[in-house]
Structure formats: structure tokens, C-alpha cells
Specification:
123 residues, mainly alpha, 5 helices, elongated, disordered N terminus, DUF4168 domain-containing protein, signal, DUF4168
């Protein structure tokens, strides 16, 4: 029973990790929607930085999910999640984007087919 609970917890954690980059927060505030960049103003350089961060984040998530599958202690699982989240924020910042800019692009990619095509063309 404990194993099933921990497995379910690990799966939930993996799902949370999968959405963490979009919801990752830093100390700075996200600008109000009126101040956010329209998709047309996201240039290829920003999109390339986003793609690099996205690749790094995918690796971090994969590693965290593998580690979570081996853990049966809830505190260790939470520590892995926290470490992965911090590493994802670092990956975004290391790419040259702020977390806010990364989140803006990620959100726009969900609803903008033209931006999705531009990202695919860069990869």
C-alpha cells in the first residue's frame, strides 16, 4: 500500500515537473498582460534561447523523474522536486532569458501556431 502511494506521488510529482517551467517563478514580478510582448515581437534570437532552455529543462525533468522513481521517502522526493525546479530556473537564466520571458514564450506557444512553426524551424 505504501509503495502504491509513493508511486502515485512520484507520478504526480512527474506531472508537476512537466509543467514547472511554464509556472516557474523568480523574484521579479510578471508584467501585466498589457505590458507583455506580442508573439510577433518574439524574434528568432529569443526563440533560439527558448529552444536551448527547453532542451535543458527536458533533460532536468527526465533525470528528476528517474530519480523520483527510485525514491520511497516523501522528504527525499520533495528535495528532488525542489532541486529540479531550481535547476530549471537556472537553465532558463543560463540561456539568456528571464523566467518571465520564458513563461511568456511558453504560454504563447500553446495558442500560436505561427510561433510553434518558427520554433520547429529552429530545431
Amino acid at each position: 500500500m505504501m509503495k502504491k502511494t509513493l508511486t502515485a506521488s512520484a507520478l504526480l510529482s512527474a506531472l508537476l515537473l512537466a509543467t514547472a517551467p511554464v509556472h516557474a517563478q523568480s523574484d521579479a514580478q510578471t508584467p501585466p498582460p498589457a505590458a507583455q510582448q506580442p508573439a510577433a515581437n518574439i524574434d528568432d534570437a529569443q526563440l533560439e534561447k527558448f529552444a536551448a532552455a527547453l532542451d535543458d529543462i527536458a533533460k532536468i525533468q527526465e533525470d528528476a523523474m528517474a530519480r523520483l522513481s527510485q525514491v520511497e521517502d516523501q522528504q527525499k522526493a520533495q528535495a528532488i522536486q525542489q532541486e529540479a525546479n531550481e535547476n530549471m530556473v537556472d537553465a532558463v537564466n543560463d540561456s539568456g532569458l528571464s523566467v518571465e520571458d520564458y513563461n511568456l514564450i511558453a504560454n504563447q506557444l500553446q495558442t500560436n501556431p505561427e510561433l510553434q512553426e518558427r520554433l520547429q524551424a529552429l530545431r
